[in-house]
Amino acid sequence: MRIFSWLWRFITFIVLLGFAVKNNQPVTLRFFFEMEWHTSLVIVLLLFFTAGVAIGVLAMLFNLLQERKEITALKREIRVKNQLANIESKQDLPL
User: Fold this and answer.
1) 93 pLDDT exceeds 60?
2) Is 25 strand, coil or helix?
3) Alpha helix stretches (DSSP H) within the chain
4) Is the pLDDT of residue 95 over 60?
5) In the predicted model, is pLDDT for residue 51 greater than 90?
6) 33 Ramachandran zone, left/alpha/beta (phi>0; psi -120 to 50)
7) How far apart are CA 37 and CA 24, in angstroms?
8) What SS3 state is found at 75?
9) Nearest to 23 by CA among 41, 46, 39, 47
10) With contact defined as beta carbons under 8 Å apart, do 65 and 81 qualify?
11) Spatial contact of 42 and 23, defined as CB atoms under 8 Å apart
């Protein structure tokens, strides 16, 4: 399984490297107020891909934190119910 993982990584690297080499044309990004940025197309694509991943992770992070909070509350509730069940079962035992 480890061999397939490394093979997949190597193939992905080669494909992305070929993509970068084939898309090295200069581009101009024009911003507001006559600002311009001259760079390679692959750099622009990489930056926008990275920004998209970061925005996606941040959007998912809120849900993850909310779910962890809910799981903690449910675990606490189960612990309390188990403690109450143990107390009740001890009271039911005859002396």
Assistant:
1) no
2) coil
3) 2-22, 41-92
4) no
5) yes
6) left
7) 15
8) helix
9) 41
10) no
11) yes
